[in-house]
Design a protein that fits this description.
This protein is of the alpha+beta class. It has 7 helices and 17 strands. Strands 8, 9, 12, 15, 16 and 17 form a 6-stranded antiparallel sheet that branches. It has a 5-stranded antiparallel sheet with strand order 1-2-3-7-6, with helices on one face. Strands 4-5 form a two-stranded antiparallel sheet.
């Protein structure tokens, strides 16, 4: 497999709609162009060191899931095939190939839809304090990483600090109205269950994931990314033990490294080659297990 040069920044001659931590989004008239860079973020900081091929892996996994789940709910993907892109994008094919998609414009809904089957991350921290997650009471005595009796829906919003804040479903209903909130919850759980059932025979556990939605006129669409290692926790079934958090196919290695060497407000340090290589390999391994494909576009 040929290792592509990392892409940390794009500057295309189209109006920049938004530059996120990982994706650069351009307004190309009737549609948006999503370009997934190789930038990596941790603890709300973009690191100076990119992860080669990360953008291609994330973009291709999203494309895979958008196509697999289109029967559950329509999504915003128009195409990720470079030869089908609008003609004005074709001069930039070398940059865009594999790491971009043309999507339908929607009105994004500012509530993230998180579905959890296992007790990890912020849910574990909240459970330790209150015995519940987003107002959902859970059995006592659960361990970190333990499987829950059934998937739970734990929406979140951005608070004034920019961090995600878990909210009860009743608050989501208050913000969006019951019909919209129920439609998003139902779609999220159906998507999660489908993906969980898909990866289980491949030796993976889908511990949790987040979805985002938007309106196209009066139609609810799945938007943003779908079931990538950056928006989901995938664990190896073979290494799963309740009470321990198994390695995941994402940037947790980066977080662990930073925790060992860095403290704010110091500048975020560069990643050593061994960390970059290890993280790249984990993303590639996750891509192969999820999609069944060894080759990147």
């Amino acid at each position: 497999m040929t290792m592509a040069s990392p892409v940390t920044f794009t500057d295309l001659p189209f109006p920049l709609f938004r530059r996120g931590k990982v994706r650069d989004v351009y307004d190309i008239g009737a549609y948006l162009l999503f370009v997934t860079s190789d930038r990596v973020s941790a603890f709300d900081h973009i690191l100076p060191t990119p992860i080669p091929q990360k953008g291609i892996i994330l973009n291709t996994i999203s494309e895979f899931w958008f196509k697999k789940t289109d029967a559950i709910i329509r999504n915003h993907l128009l195409t990720a095939t470079i030869t089908d892109f609008p003609t004005e994008l074709l001069p930039y094919s070398d940059l865009l190939k594999g790491r971009s998609m043309v999507v339908i414009k929607t009105r994004p809904i500012d509530v993230e839809c998180v579905v959890r089957q296992y007790l990890a991350g912020s849910a574990w921290a909240e459970y330790q304090t209150s015995g519940s997650v987003c107002g959902i009471s859970l059995p006592s005595g659960l361990q970190m990483g333990e499987r829950l009796p059934e998937p739970i829906f734990t929406p979140a919003i951005k608070n004034h600090t920019g961090h995600d804040e878990n909210i009860p479903f009743s608050k989501m209903i208050e913000l969006l109205g019951e019909p919209t909130a129920m439609a998003m919850k139902t779609a999220s759980i159906a998507l999660f269950q489908y993906a969980s059932d898909w990866v289980a025979p491949k030796g993976l556990i889908l511990a949790d994931t987040k979805f985002e939605f938007g309106w196209l006129n009066n139609t609810l669409l799945l938007i943003d990314e779908a079931l990538t290692p950056d928006s989901s926790r995938y664990w190896e079934k073979s290494t799963y033990i309740a009470g321990q958090t198994p390695p995941s196919f994402d940037k947790q290695i980066v977080r662990n490294y930073l925790l060992s060497v860095w403290k704010e407000p110091d500048p975020v340090p560069a990643l050593p080659d061994v960390i970059v290589q290890t993280v790249t390999q984990k993303y590639l391994e996750g891509y192969t297990k999820i999609t069944g494909n060894d080759n990147l576009p």
